[in-house]
Amino acid sequence: MKEILTRNIGIKILAVILAAILWLVINNIEDPLTVKDFHDIPVRRLNEQAIKSKKQDYQVKDGDKIDITILARRSIADNLKESNFVATADLSKVTDMDTITINISCPGYDDEVIIKKMSHQVMTITREEVVEKRELVKVRIKGEPADGFYVAKKTSNTLVTVSGPKSKIERIKEIIAEVDVTDEAQAGIIKTNEYVKVVDEEGKEIDKSHLTFSQETVPITIEIYPTKIIDVLVTTEGTPADNYYMTNIEYGPKEIEIAGKAEVIDKIDSLIVTENIEGANSDIKKEINLSDYLDDGLIIVEDDDTAFINITIEKAETKRISIRPDDIIIKNKPSLSVKFQSTGPIILELSGPGSELERLTSKEITPYIDLYHYTYGSFEVNLQIEKIEGAENVKLAAPVKIPVFLSP
User: Fold this and answer.
1) For 111-120, what is the mean pLDDT?
2) Of 196, 271, 283, residue with least CA distance to 244
3) 141 exposed, middle or buried (CB, 10 Å; 0-12, 13-18, 19+)?
4) Nearest to residue 116, comparing CAs of 32, 33, 35?
5) 216, burial (CB in 10 Å: exposed 0-12, middle 13-18, buried 19+)
6) Which of 113, 155, 255, 315 has a CB 3.0–4.6 Å from the CB of 109, allowing a cystine?
7) Over 90: is that where the pLDDT of 221 sits?
8) Which parts of 302-394 are beta strand (E)?
């Protein structure tokens, strides 16, 4: 038996070697080694608490995804996907250069897959101090209620603390909660819970990533009032200085929209503003806040509640106008003959604002005398003039006596 096994031993060993070589050749032909690329493999971060425990926050600057090239049998490589690979960066091992080594493996194929090339060997991060901001939540209204309704009150009594990277916290102008009232057509109180947001100086929402809130939602209360459009009326009290006249009032707006509870708003139809002109000797020009003149419980809907008032104050001037006796009307004429003892023109000296005097002629003036209680004889009767339309402030500057004779 031994002789059989050892006979031609060299040939037998050579045969075994040739068989092995042949197997390898056939195997490489049937299932050769191949190179394959994989892209955008996410790098999982481990031990984030190691950074957060130092009151720091971080952001990945580079290396959050990697591309790799592998070497493996075709039968294996063809069945692999990006999801078969696990890439990790241990944040507890961050260097002073803010880099972390990336490790990659292919679970289940570690002995059969060789990582030939990686697009990133390390993950690069930036670290920043974590700070806090604590504020009362402000309520922001989204949309508009239906016509005839107005959001009168919006309150939140909740303080919220937000923490995060210093540079991001410093961008925060306000902590807000939004309430959507689009087409709301019911007066009354609405209570709701809304998510908090943070906004910058321009009112734009800041991304909440890397921010932590003491609470995500807050209770909000809003109250909706019915609205009403009312007239604005400006009046005056007092009189200007001697020899001065108030000749015109201009103001605006002439109407405003107000809001209030139904039982309050139903009682008002106009807003009266009274301006004191006592002793005035020049024009009055001013702006007022109409809200100051409203009763409690009423609100002006417009954002701008100001109104302008222009009051024209003019100094007295004089003007002479000639009339004839035939122009004089006799009131309360007795059953007697009335004869004017002068037939010549009568000069009237009128006093009033220049803007009213300049357009006056004798045609606009209606002079008259009143003979009530007068009997036979000669008399000097006071001449008077009727109020002149458009020149109500014009009057006689000095008394005018008209000689008359009454006879049977």
Assistant:
1) 94
2) 283
3) middle
4) 35
5) exposed
6) 113
7) yes
8) 306-323, 329-331, 337-340, 346-353, 367-370, 377-382, 384-385
Cα-only R_g, the chain: 50
Residue 77 CA to residue 69 CA, distance in Å, equals 11
228-246 in b/e form (b: 16+ CB < 10 A) is bebebebebeeebeeebbb
CA distance 38 to 335: 127
Question: Which pLDDT band, with edges at 50, 70 and 90, does 13 fall under?
Answer: low
Over pLDDT 90: what percentage of the chain? 86
Strand-strand pairing, 174-180 and 138-142: parallel
pLDDT of residue 116: 94
Beta-bridge partner residues of 219: 193
pLDDT bucket at 339, cuts 50 / 70 / 90: very high
Q: ∠ CA(157), CA(296), CA(192), 5° rounding? A: 30
| Lookup: tokens for 257 | 């929209």
Model pTM above 0.90: no
Can you give 14-37 as a three-state secondary structure string?
A: HHHHHHHHHHHHHHHHHCCEEEEE
What's residue 136's pLDDT?
A: 96
* Helices and strands per DSSP (H, E), number in the chain: 7, 28
How far apart CA 369 and CA 6 sit, in angstroms, is: 168
* pLDDT tens digits, 25-51: 454 556 899 999 999 999 999 999 999
